[in-house]
Amino acid sequence: MDLQINDKVAIVTGSARGLGAATARRLAEEGASVVITDILREQAEATAAALRAHGLKAVCIVADITKSAEVQRLVDETIAHFGGVHILVNNAGFPRDRYLVKMTEDDWDLVMEVMLKGAFLACKAVMPHFIDQGWGRVINISSRAHFGNPTQANYSAAKAGLIGMAKALAIEEGRYGITVNCIAPGFIETEMVQALPTYETIRDRAVAMQPIKRGGRPDDIADAVAFLASQRAGFITGEVLHVTGGRYG
């Protein structure tokens, strides 16, 4: 299927590694020009260089998405380099898991700042360009955790917030040819997850609760993002696509 994004420019936040890197690669393989952006300079530059080594169009722009001036610079440099911006994937995020009675304000604030405020700032920065050109795609990477997980009051709240934001923006911006959707991954075997000391326990528990008896792969998420970013998904907005192997609760 031709996704018809070969003339589009995509920003993928938190794309130095993991789901973000896989997503950027998939969009680039479909012909999009991609911006790898992260605070991890060395890894981000290596990811962009690896894409270019395979003949794909990619550039690295290091930015802290919790700072409005840096987000605006990210968008300005994207347009200066590639001539426009059409797709935004709000992927940046990380957990700070603790039971609520042990969760600090920093644990709460850091997760909210990166995932929820970062997505807000990025959407605000790209939206005028999307409106002017009458076309745009926003995909927020939420999580199955939006249903709630113990020790993840902060993470679950942020991921649920991304869904609420997407539904609100879908209503606001649809008249301009802009779609806003979410993907809610389940258990995905990223490098970060595989490095956890409890990885095998987490994996076995997740797979036992899924109809599809394997862990998810980063490419499972990347493929879903590519479809929602495409011309083919132009009548889909305000939706949450669960990529969980069939696990919901």
From TrEMBL:
It comes from the Bacteria. Belongs to the short-chain dehydrogenases/reductases (SDR) family. It comes from Pigmentiphaga litoralis. This is 3-oxoacyl-[acyl-carrier-protein] reductase FabG. InterPro entries: KR_dom (IPR057326), NAD(P)-bd_dom_sf (IPR036291), Sc_DH/Rdtase_CS (IPR020904), SDR (IPR050259), SDR_fam (IPR002347). One of its GO terms (biological process) is monocarboxylic acid metabolic process. It catalyses: a (3R)-hydroxyacyl-[ACP] + NADP(+) = a 3-oxoacyl-[ACP] + NADPH + H(+). PANTHER family: 3-OXOACYL-(ACYL-CARRIER-PROTEIN) REDUCTASE, 3-OXOACYL-[ACYL-CARRIER-PROTEIN] REDUCTASE FABG. Residues 8-186 form the Ketoreductase domain. It holds the Pfam family adh_short_C2. SMART domains: PKS_KR (SM00822). Catalyzes the NADPH-dependent reduction of beta-ketoacyl-ACP substrates to beta-hydroxyacyl-ACP products, the first reductive step in the elongation cycle of fatty acid biosynthesis.
